[in-house]
Amino acid sequence: MNDSIKLQANQSPLQGSLRVPGDKSISHRSIMFGAMAKGVTTINGFLLGDDCLSTISCFKKLGVDIQISGTNVTITSNGMENWKEPIDILDTGNSGTTTRLMLGMLAGSKVHSVLIGDESIAKRPMKRVIQPLRQMGALISGRSDGQFTPLAVQGTQLSAIDYTMPVASAQVKSAILLAGLRAKGVTTVRESEVSRDHTERMLRQFGAEITTEKGVIKLQGGQQLTGTHVEVPGDISSAAFFLVAGAIATESSIRLEHVGLNPTRTGIVDVLQQMGANLEIEVNDSESEEPIGTLTIKSSKLNAIEIGGELIPRLIDEIPIIALLATQAHGTTVIKDAEELKVKETDRIAAVVHELKKLGADIEATDDGMIIKGPVTLSGGKLQSYGDHRIGMMGAIASVISTQPIEIEHASCISVSYPNFFDHLRIVSSFETLR
Ligand code: S3P
C-alpha cells in the first residue's frame, strides 16, 4: 500500500489550541468493562482510532450491543455470563491492549474463542499474560505453546492467584485482574514499579471493590460490574507530540485542553519540566475518576537529562517523541531501563535510532534505551514508520524544525491512536503536504 505523506520543511512558529482525541487505554477499558457489566454504559469522548474500533468489533462478535454516535458510545449488555459464543475469529488488529486484556476476560468466560491480530501482534510476546492466566487454570493454546497469536481460549472456572509482576506492564496486570473478577478467591497483583492504573480506577467506577496499597492490588472474585457513565479525557500520549512540537519550534505557543493527567501517565510532563521547558499546567475540577487539565507549551531552551527507573513506565509510549525532543536539548540525554521498547508495535529502540539518524541526529542505541546528544539541526529525508503510529508521528513532528521535507511511508498507521493528527498539525502550523 502506498500511503506515504511528504511534509514540507516548516520552521515557522506554531500557534493554536487543540483538543486531542480520547485516551486510548481508557477508551479500550470503557468498552471492555461496559461489555462485562450488566446494564447500560454510556461513554463520552471515545477514541475512534483503529485500535479501539478493533475492541468494539470483538465485543460485537460476542453479541454485545454497541452503538456509536460521533465520539459517544452506548453499550447494552446482560453481563459477560451471557456473551454469545462467537462463530468468527476475534481480530484484535494492531492492538496489544485488546489482545492481552481480552485473554484475561475470555479465560473466565463461558465461551470458546480464537484471537488473531496483524503481523505486528503476531510477533508480540503473549507468554507474559498466558503464564499467569494458566496458573489461574486458564485453558489457552496457541502458536509456540501459547507464546504468540493465533490463540484459542476455552473459558473455564478460574482460581485466584498471588502474582508478583516480573515486568512493569499494565496490560499484564489488567489481564490478571479481569480474570480475577471471575475467579474463586482473592487475586493479588504485586508491582515493584507502578504501571498505569486505569483498570483499577475504572473497575471502582463500575462498582467493583479493589484495594491498592504500596504496589499491592487485591480483588475479590465473583463481583458483578454494573453499567455506568465514562468520561474519556484527551490522551496525554497524543498530546505529547504537540507538547514536543511547541517546545522545539521557534516563537511557538500551543494550548492543549481536556488532557488526562493521571499521575501514572504524566512522565512526559516531568521530563519537560526537568529539561526546563516553558510549560504551564492548569488542573481542572472534574468529577471523573481521572484527573483532567490544560497544558500550554511555549518554545523552550532545553537541557539534557537522564531518564530511567520508575519514570519509564510513566512515559513508555512517549519515548519516541522524547528522543526527538532530546535532539534539541543541550548536552547528552540518556534513556535507560527501557528494554520494553523492543516489544512494542515495533522495536522502538532500533526504529527511533535508525530514523532519527537519517535526519542527522547524534543518537546511539544501547541495550535498554538510547543516548542522544544535542542540539543538532535536523535535515530531511524519507522515514519509515514500521507500521507503528508513534514512529510515524515522531517523524511528522520532526518536520516542524527540519531544514528539508520529510516523507513518512505508511503514514496511515497513525490512525491507530490519532486519526485526526494531520488536521491538528494543520491547525497549529502552516503545514503542507507535498506529493
Ligand atoms: C497499555 C499499557 C502499556 C502501553 C500500551 C497501553 C494499556 O503497555 O505501552 O500502549 O492500555 O494498558 P504494557 O502494559 O505492555 O507496558
Automatic annotation (TrEMBL):
<dbReference type="GO" id="GO:0009423">
    <property type="term" value="P:chorismate biosynthetic process"/>
</dbReference>
<dbReference type="GO" id="GO:0008652">
    <property type="term" value="P:amino acid biosynthetic process"/>
</dbReference>
<comment type="function">
    <text>Catalyzes the transfer of the enolpyruvyl moiety of phosphoenolpyruvate (PEP) to the 5-hydroxyl of shikimate-3-phosphate (S3P) to produce enolpyruvyl shikimate-3-phosphate and inorganic phosphate.</text>
</comment>
<dbReference type="InterPro" id="IPR023193">
    <property type="entry name" value="EPSP_synthase_CS"/>
</dbReference>
<keyword id="KW-0057">Aromatic amino acid biosynthesis</keyword>
<comment type="pathway">
    <text>Metabolic intermediate biosynthesis; chorismate biosynthesis; chorismate from D-erythrose 4-phosphate and phosphoenolpyruvate: step 6/7.</text>
</comment>
<dbReference type="GO" id="GO:0005737">
    <property type="term" value="C:cytoplasm"/>
</dbReference>
<dbReference type="InterPro" id="IPR013792">
    <property type="entry name" value="RNA3'P_cycl/enolpyr_Trfase_a/b"/>
</dbReference>
<feature type="binding site">
    <location>
        <position position="169"/>
    </location>
    <ligand>
        <name>3-phosphoshikimate</name>
    </ligand>
</feature>
<dbReference type="InterPro" id="IPR036968">
    <property type="entry name" value="Enolpyruvate_Tfrase_sf"/>
</dbReference>
<keyword id="KW-0963">Cytoplasm</keyword>
<feature type="binding site">
    <location>
        <position position="124"/>
    </location>
    <ligand>
        <name>phosphoenolpyruvate</name>
    </ligand>
</feature>
<feature type="binding site">
    <location>
        <position position="390"/>
    </location>
    <ligand>
        <name>phosphoenolpyruvate</name>
    </ligand>
</feature>
<feature type="compositionally biased region" description="Polar residues">
    <location>
        <begin position="1"/>
        <end position="15"/>
    </location>
</feature>
<feature type="binding site">
    <location>
        <position position="171"/>
    </location>
    <ligand>
        <name>3-phosphoshikimate</name>
    </ligand>
</feature>
<feature type="binding site">
    <location>
        <position position="96"/>
    </location>
    <ligand>
        <name>phosphoenolpyruvate</name>
    </ligand>
</feature>
<feature type="domain" description="Enolpyruvate transferase">
    <location>
        <begin position="11"/>
        <end position="425"/>
    </location>
</feature>
<feature type="binding site">
    <location>
        <position position="317"/>
    </location>
    <ligand>
        <name>3-phosphoshikimate</name>
    </ligand>
</feature>
<dbReference type="GO" id="GO:0003866">
    <property type="term" value="F:3-phosphoshikimate 1-carboxyvinyltransferase activity"/>
</dbReference>
<feature type="binding site">
    <location>
        <position position="24"/>
    </location>
    <ligand>
        <name>phosphoenolpyruvate</name>
    </ligand>
</feature>
<keyword id="KW-0808">Transferase</keyword>
<dbReference type="InterPro" id="IPR006264">
    <property type="entry name" value="EPSP_synthase"/>
</dbReference>
<dbReference type="GO" id="GO:0009073">
    <property type="term" value="P:aromatic amino acid family biosynthetic process"/>
</dbReference>
<dbReference type="InterPro" id="IPR001986">
    <property type="entry name" value="Enolpyruvate_Tfrase_dom"/>
</dbReference>
<feature type="binding site">
    <location>
        <position position="171"/>
    </location>
    <ligand>
        <name>phosphoenolpyruvate</name>
    </ligand>
</feature>
<comment type="subunit">
    <text>Monomer.</text>
</comment>
<feature type="region of interest" description="Disordered">
    <location>
        <begin position="1"/>
        <end position="21"/>
    </location>
</feature>
<feature type="active site" description="Proton acceptor">
    <location>
        <position position="317"/>
    </location>
</feature>
<feature type="binding site">
    <location>
        <position position="24"/>
    </location>
    <ligand>
        <name>3-phosphoshikimate</name>
    </ligand>
</feature>
<dbReference type="Pfam" id="PF00275">
    <property type="entry name" value="EPSP_synthase"/>
</dbReference>
<protein>
    <recommendedName>
        <fullName>3-phosphoshikimate 1-carboxyvinyltransferase</fullName>
        <ecNumber>2.5.1.19</ecNumber>
    </recommendedName>
</protein>
<feature type="binding site">
    <location>
        <position position="25"/>
    </location>
    <ligand>
        <name>3-phosphoshikimate</name>
    </ligand>
</feature>
<feature type="binding site">
    <location>
        <position position="29"/>
    </location>
    <ligand>
        <name>3-phosphoshikimate</name>
    </ligand>
</feature>
<keyword id="KW-0028">Amino-acid biosynthesis</keyword>
<feature type="binding site">
    <location>
        <position position="348"/>
    </location>
    <ligand>
        <name>phosphoenolpyruvate</name>
    </ligand>
</feature>
<comment type="similarity">
    <text>Belongs to the EPSP synthase family.</text>
</comment>
<feature type="binding site">
    <location>
        <position position="344"/>
    </location>
    <ligand>
        <name>3-phosphoshikimate</name>
    </ligand>
</feature>
